[in-house]
Design brief:
alpha/beta, FAD/NAD(P)-binding domain, Polyamine Oxidase, Chain A, domain 2, 13 helices, 21 strands, about 35% helix, about 20% strand, binds flavin-adenine dinucleotide
């Protein structure tokens, strides 16, 4: 496939691409293998209708200008929705619609208070050891629990009983900047200069030493070290064979961080059915338990994203794209009236739970398991390194968290390689570091 390099990187998502760029910058040679037909992974944009982009995965630059992709977008001349995001993300602009009726001011404020109290209870419980699930600490009897549960199911991809209180992420804060041309397009443009072998699924990683050998349908790639950036869903699937097997502590970390599911349904309309007042975030729920989050595009496009998550999101995904489309149209009609139905021109629905390259949207810590992000990211035998959003602490579940994890892994690899080289340099006699590096694994 290619000459032997220092490092083989598995996966060309945000983390694999940032690691490859950083390693190359540090003078370390890499080869990147990607199982699918494209780079970007969970950053992926499609054109809903000409000129209107829809992100199937990440869509918002969390943390605004602190996000490394803000600088990258600027350097590539890609527009960010800096001027619109404040009005769009204003919590007053987050509307609650119950049984088709928007909550009045008093109820809206009571609902927001319930959200604040719930997040406060979760934050306090995050400090206990082991940390409980969110459902253990919030008031599930409140009339405002249904929209909050929907927010958790979409925000974490898991229902409240399956989320650790200590797995709070930046995604629960103010969202940040939208990318009108698509976050996936931004990541693809930034990663375009990285040499990647596509359609090269890693099927087996031999890390028994010396070095590593990664088997793919296109041949075996050999390198000194391997960096694994695939999702915990892919690692748990057993589709990549590890030889020798991963140690128990690594398997426990993978199991403690299973994938959540957030699905999106993008709808395009042939006219502005929302009006300027209609743009922003909506949470809809009804007494027959149909609930969803609906983002009406704040960038002026006549499109919406309808979100579902957790068990309901997975159940709906299993009903198929038509059921997802119908569900999405029904929710938008609850907010803007039945007339919108005749203006729908196209839809795209995601199916992240069954997506064969990730098996979910992002990793979410089970109760008592938030500490597993650290061992998940730890290297094995200084030969197999790990990155990816799930290894990020504080920015987990985000594209920038994935990016930063790639930089972190690249620095670890560089320190290891340079340390090894430094140890070697003064030695003229047989090099003990060489035997340490290439000795059979303990
Ligand atoms: C619906 C949804 C909404 C989101 N919204 C946001 C948001 O608004 N803001 C935000 O910041 N983040 C968001 N995220 C999260 C963000 O997209 C991810 O955290 C980030 O893109 C993950 O990057 P990664 O490099 O860790 O993994 P990935 O992007 O999954 O990259 C891993 C790569 O490995 C490849 N791969 C898998 N198995 C193999 C194999 N065996 N061999 C070779 N290659 C393999 C995959 O094809 C993939 O390209 C969202 C995600 C989803 C799904």
């Amino acid at each position: 496939m290619s000459d032997q390099r220092d490092v083989v990187i598995i996966g060309a998502g945000s983390s694999g691409l940032s690691a490859a760029k950083e390693l190359q910058r540090l003078g370390i040679s890499t080869t990147v293998i990607e199982g699918s037909h494209r780079i970007g992974g969970r950053a992926y944009s499609e054109e809903l209708v000409p000129g209107t982009w829809f992100d199937l995965g990440c869509a918002w630059l969390t943390d605004g200008d602190d996000n490394p992709f803000a600088r990258i977008a600027d350097s590539l001349g890609i527009l960010l929705g800096r001027s619109t995001w404040e009005a769009y993300n204003n919590t007053d602009n987050h509307r609650f619609i119950h049984n088709g009726v928007r909550l009045g001011r008093e109820e809206h404020d009571a609902c927001r208070r319930y959200y604040d109290e719930s997040y406060e209870a979760v934050a306090v419980a995050a400090g206990t050891d082991p940390e409980p699930s969110m459902s253990d600490v919030i008031d599930l009897e409140s009339p405002y629990a249904p929209p909050f549960l929907e927010s958790v199911a979409t925000g974490w991809g898991v229902d409240v009983d399956g989320v650790s209180c200590a797995d709070n992420t930046t995604s629960t804060g103010e969202l940040g900047y939208p990318v009108p041309h698509g976050y996936g397009n931004l990541v693809a443009a930034w990663g375009a200069d990285v040499e990647v072998t596509l359609n090269a699924r890693a099927e087996r990683i031999d890390w028994s030493g010396p070095g590593v050998a990664v088997e793919t349908p296109k041949g075996t790639v050999k390198a000194d070290l391997v960096l694994v950036t695939v999702s915990t869903g892919m690692m748990a699937s057993g589709e990549i064979a590890f030889d020798p097997l991963l140690p128990d502590w690594k398997l426990e970390a993978i199991q403690g961080l299973p994938m959540g599911t957030e699905n999106k349904m993008g709808l395009a309309f042939d006219t502005d059915v929302f009006g300027p007042e209609g743009r922003g975030h909506h949470t809809v729920w009804s007494d027959n338990a149909d609930s969803a989050k609906v983002d009406v595009n704040g960038m002026g496009f006549n499109s919406v994203s309808v979100f579902t998550g957790g068990r309901h999101g997975i159940w709906l995904e299993k009903q198929g794209p038509q059921a997802c489309h119908d569900f999405a149209v029904d929710r938008v009609a609850e907010i803007f009236g039945n007339d919108i139905r005749k203006h729908v021109v196209r839809s795209i629905t995601t199916a992240w739970s069954s997506e064969p390259w990730t098996y979910g949207s992002w990793a979410c810590a089970l109760p008592g398991q938030a500490h597993q992000r650290e061992p998940l990211g730890q290297a094995l035998d200084d030969r197999m390194f790990f990155a990816g959003e799930a290894t990020s602490i504080g920015s987990q579940g985000t594209c920038d968290g994935a990016y930063k994890s790639g930089i972190r892994a690249a620095e670890e690899i560089a320190a290891h390689i340079k340390g090894t080289a430094r140890d070697r340099r003064p030695l003229r006699t047989p090099d003990p570091c060489f035997s340490r590096l290439h000795a059979p694994r303990r």
